[in-house]
Amino acid sequence: MATDLTLRHLSVETPLGELLIVVSDDGVLLTAFEDEEPGAALERAERALRTPARPADVELAGIRREVSDYFAGVGRAFSAPPDLRLVQTGFPRRVLAVTARIPYGILATYGDVAAEAGSPRGARAAGNALARCPIELFVPCHRVVHAGRSIGGYGRYEHRKRWLLRHEGILV
User: Fold this and answer.
1) Which of 74, 121, 123, 155 could bond 111 through an S-S bridge, CB–CB 3.0 to 4.6 Å?
2) Which residue among 72, 104, 127 closes a domain?
């Protein structure tokens, strides 16, 4: 049974591989690089929301351009907001909302994010919420690091976090 929600998707070629982007009526719902099994991620989202996603290259041309500009080094922000409906409510959702506001080229710590999300001692829980973030880039989880400024984890995609931090000029 489909809902009234509309889901559209497109793929963008990036230096880190092809990136699937799924957009709802409210913003970017999901991103998945080719090494993250984007087809399976899309199916899980469609099942969770009980609505199919349709290809929409033309409708999403602005998002394609912004992502391409970001990877070309000329874009620093995305106009489409993140749609957090696939994220557990409560603290995890607050963590991602806080993280979505971290500007290009700026680092925050897991502790900073946890405190701003309402749990000053929740750095580890913030890290867990970020590890499950379904909206990479649009929620810039790569900009969150350990208190000692080591880059921390990024699931099994630490190479991608390192690349993104170098791309933004944060990591030399």
Assistant:
1) 123
2) 72
Greater confidence (59 vs 83) lies with 83
- Give yes or no for residue 2 having a pLDDT over 60: no
| Domain match, 24 and 59 both | yes
The single residue of 96, 126, 141, 144 carrying the catalytic annotation is: 141
pLDDT in tens, 97-110: 999 999 999 999 99
Question: 154 lies in which domain range?
Answer: 91-167
Active-site residue 141, yes or no? yes
Domain end (from 72, 105, 121): 72
Into how many domains does the chain fold?
A: 2
Whether this prediction's pTM lies above 0.85 is answered by: yes
Positive/negative CA dihedral, 106, 157, 125, 48: positive
Could you give the CA distance from residue 146 to residue 127 in angstroms, rounded to a whole number? Answer: 9
Confidence of residue 1 (pLDDT cuts 50, 70, 90): very low
Q: Could you give the strand order of the β-sheet that contains 27-33, starting from the edge strand earlier in sequence?
A: 27-33, 17-24, 7-14, 53-55
